[in-house]
Specification:
Strand content: 5-15%
Largest sheet: 3 strands, antiparallel
Shape: extended
Number of strands: 3
Radius of gyration: 29 Å
C-alpha cells in the first residue's frame, strides 16, 4: 500500500528530480506558459504555487522588512536566476494578491509523436502572455483596407521593395500610364510603328 507517499518519482533520483522542477519552475515564471508531460505538470503545479505563495507573503509585508527579505531568499533557493525572482516579486505575486491559491492551469494538448507521452501546457492563470501577439498585430495591419488603385499600388510597392518613403512611391505611381507602361516606352512604340 502507498500510504503517506506523496509525490511522483518521474524516473529520476531525488537530486535530478528537484533540479528538473526548479528548471521548469524558472521557465514557467519567465515565459508564463510551458509545454511538458502531464505527470511533470502535475508535479510542477504545487512546486510553483508554493513559490508564488511565499512571494505573496513577502510583498504583503512590505518591500523593506525582514520578512520580505526572508521570502525573497526562500524563493531564491529554488530559482537561481535573479531576473526571474524579480519578475515573480514585481509582477506575478501582485497579480495574484487577492487570489487564495490556484495560480496555475494545466491544459492537456495531446500526445507526443516520438513516445506517445501525454503532453500538457501549464500556464499561470490570468496571464497576459500571448505568444501569437506579434503575428496577430501584423495580420491586423495587413488586413486594413486600402482605398483605391493607388493605395493598392503603394501597398504592393512597399511589400516588394520594403518600406520606402511615400514620395518615392507616389513618383513611381505617377510615372505609369493607364496600361501600366512608362510614358517614354509608349512614345517609342508609336515612333517605331509609323
Amino acid at each position: 500500500m502507498r500510504h503517506r507517499v506523496a509525490h511522483r518519482k518521474l524516473g529520476r533520483v531525488t537530486e535530478h528530480r528537484i533540479a528538473m522542477l526548479r528548471g521548469q519552475a524558472q521557465a514557467l515564471i519567465r515565459h508564463e506558459r510551458i509545454e511538458t508531460t502531464v505527470p511533470r505538470a502535475k508535479e510542477l503545479r504545487p512546486f510553483v504555487e508554493r513559490l508564488i505563495t511565499v512571494a505573496k507573503r513577502g510583498i504583503s509585508e512590505g518591500g523593506r522588512t525582514t520578512k520580505a527579505l526572508n521570502a525573497r531568499r526562500l524563493v531564491a533557493q529554488d530559482l537561481q536566476d535573479k531576473a526571474v525572482v524579480t519578475k515573480l516579486f514585481d509582477t506575478i505575486a501582485p497579480r495574484f494578491q487577492a487570489r487564495p491559491g490556484g495560480y496555475t492551469r494545466i491544459l492537456r494538448v495531446g500526445f507526443r509523436r516520438g513516445d506517445s507521452a501525454e503532453v500538457a501546457q501549464i500556464e499561470l492563470v490570468g496571464s497576459e502572455y500571448n505568444p501569437n501577439l506579434e503575428a496577430e498585430t501584423a495580420q491586423t495591419d495587413a488586413a486594413a483596407p486600402v482605398k483605391g488603385v493607388g493605395g493598392r499600388l503603394k501597398a504592393a510597392a512597399s511589400r516588394l521593395r520594403g518600406k520606402k518613403t511615400e514620395a518615392a512611391t507616389d513618383a513611381a505611381v505617377e510615372g505609369k500610364t493607364k496600361k501600366g507602361a512608362p510614358k517614354g516606352a509608349r512614345a517609342k512604340k508609336k515612333t517605331e510603328g509609323e
